[in-house]
Amino acid sequence: MTGIDLLLSVAFAVGVIGFVSVFALVAIYLERKVSAHMQDRLGPMETGGWHGWSQTVADTLKLLLKEDIIPTAADKPLFKLAPFIVFTGSFAAWAVIPFAANLIGADINIGVFYLVAVSSLGVIGILMAGWASNNKWALYGAMRAAAQMVSYEIPIGLSLLVPILLAESLSMKELVEVQAGGFWHWTIFSHLPFALIAFVIYFWASLAETNRTPFDIPEAESELVAGYHVEYSGMRFAMFFLAEYANMFVVSAVVTALFLGGWYAPIPWLDIPVETSVVGSAAIGAFWFSSKAMLLVVVQMWLRWTLPRLRVDQLMHICWKVFMPFSFVNILLLSLWVALCQ
Amino acid sequence: MSDSLELNLSTGHAPDLVRSALADVEDIHGERMSLQMGPQHPATHGVLRLELETDGEMVVKATPHIGYLHRCFEKIAENMTWPQIIPYVDRLDYCASMNNALGFVLGCEKLFGIEVSERVQTIRVLVAEMNRVASHLVAVGTYGLDIGAWTPFLFLFQEREHLLDLFDELSGGRLLYNYIWIGGLAHDVPDGWLPKVRDFLKYMEPKIGELNTLLSFNKIFTERTGKVAVLPADLAIQYGVTGPNLRGSGVKWDIRKAEPYSGYETYDFEIPVGTGEFGIVGDCFDRYMVRVREMEQSLLIMKQAVERLEKLERDDVQAAIPKSFSKVPVGEIYFRTETPKGELGFYIVSDGKGKPNRLKCRAPSFTALSVLSRLAPGLLIADIVALVGSIDIVLGEVDR
Amino acid sequence: MSVPATRDTAALIPRRRNPLSQYFSDLWIGIVTILEGMWVTFSHLPKRTITVQYPKEKVPMYPQTRAMLVNHVDDCGYCLSCKRVCPVNIFTITGVRADPGEDLGILPDGKPKKMHIVDFKIDMSKCVYCGLCVEACDTRSLRWEQPQEKPVYNRRDLHLDFSGMTAERKQELLDRDEARKKAKAAEAAAKAAAPKVAPPKPTSESGTASSPAPTPSDPS
Fold it and tell me: What is the CATH number of the domain that holds C113?
């Protein structure tokens, strides 16, 4: 690795940190507004003037300034470490997210594999948080989170196999590049029944990965008060919050890259090829990519403000008895189809 | 092997849950953990404390602890003149003040031999049914919240807001009214109030359909509540459970029909009962759905009452109020009415000295809560939340 | 897709099917009901919100809303009905009888006002807003008023005084009452002492006028 490469990587990492923070602020604001208008409310309207646009900024400042309370009986080193591990897990995944053809942190040849691997890092942090809090509710939340996230890795992995099988690559960049040329070439439309099923399964299972409703049982507020982060306050709580929203974007980004054509515009002539303009291509690619991912983030919010929460056993039922068989059959049929027709 | 689990089999619990509970306790012998749920917990609907003994996620034993909201209502009432008790009665079940006051006032009126005019009776029925709808809106909305659905809760509170506005205009209070008095009402309905009730009826009817689409028939909701915490009819009767909880178990028992008061016999309405449509008769879903359907019936009664009131001439609604309460007849009475929570009974002893000698309140929430420890073993923690929400207790009434 | 007002639930719930068709119908119902629910929440997005931006816009209150007790002391005849009916005893009322020639005006019920209301204190922090006192007031001097906001920083600020008198005026009236009572007591003592020739002694009555509890001897 040359010095320039290293410099570029560092610059990308700093940029991503900035993007994650800004995205989280926007997403939290968006979530408040979406939920408010779905419930005939207005949401925040005061802070910053126009429609309370700076409410989340103010909230972040408040969280940063708050006293950091650590329970006396907590396991202090673990308690302090846990939020950072959770955040690292979701942050590391951003390295392989292809915002544009030439805007990707590290185009490693096992991109998807890396992504699945680091995104399960978060569960360790959650387990640590729940254990170290020395609180029974937090422990329940952590145990539920562990069971849920480990189980849902499997349907997620199986449904990710569909685009991988079609692109014959694990590199995120190559996975996107096979979808070039209009929305009818996107994986979800080009291989309709298989990719659609894989898309739905991945999207739903990823809700469980990110602990969003209807799979928010690790932090189910009416059951476990707040689950694994019940004892956290201030900055450390903000880290969990940030990680949750970063995770939401990561899973949406993966769906975008693998099923929805990544950085490509729905119609080919809206794209700017890298050969024409490096910056223009990156900008337009990032625009389309982020728009698609944001749309999916909004769908996640929409689901959250519509659906009730599942019970633990039902969650497992859906994972093992619905998603798993469908994923397997899907993969099997797709493999047959690929083997016979291509 | 605990007795509670054996009992549980006979109560017709969802068999697979019980079986797994037995398997857990017998085969694994997991270490049991005691878990304090409440008094500060989002799902205990107030200051209820549940002492749970859990084996993993499974609840082996649940002991409700009450008394955090105890206000000595019965003793205070002994030192109050008769009209002064009504503000206290209002505060028993603060979600349905009108119904509580109605029960107490009707008991007193029967004891004192007071007859009220038809107009007063009709207004009383109207406001009682309005409050029943308001109370059920809270019950159903918070139940959705317990199950994890935020939006129905806020939708229903929006509907309730219209009712509270109507009450505000009628009586001056939004939650605690002191509107129904012994021998009459605080005052007649204001001008232009009845058309507003009509508007509300028109507005409310499609909202129940929307609730059913959004929450009641949602697959996740029916899975969470169906077959959970089944309360069989015989057990419900043994424990003295009344109201929507009893009707959820399939027993057609409603004081408004069985022992009509305040002219309820002249209204046309039905008693919805649990049908077990998503599982077993008497499960959480049935108790929930009975409330939703009771709202529809209450809207029907309200419509009839408004029609009658529009025809009835205005008269003095305070005509039958005794001039002095210090010379009321001596005697005792037990009078029961159907409140949104169930059968609210008042045992009133009057010694003729202007204050009750003894006032005993049979609170429906209290009896409903007593069955909780019987139903809880074998449920998951998430089901405990579903169970507590489905029996719809109000701690103001449990503790009194 | 539209929102049905009611739905035939029986059609949705298959019973006694074989497990496989049960499995698929469960799945299908799950997908359909989730989409229906999403439609309901989506249909609320463009709807007008009901939020009232409180300090900027205010909801008018109804004239009978129980918000704040106010006593119009000119109309108050010192009948103490309000104090008698109050379940939580929030009233502290002291009155001083007017001098024989003094004109205090006419009460709304047509009778002349005979008492100076030296103290009419209401402890709003204890009020349960039952409205019994307002209904009991014969002269309608005690009324509900609807200020949009009446928060205070100190609980003592909820002890409202409606006498409308300065402290000096209050003291003057109380002193006058005291003096009059003393004179009366002395007169009575003198009368009692005249045949027996005993020294006049102060009676217990003299102390009651200045105490917060009103003398129950003189209703209007």
Answer: 3.30.70.3270
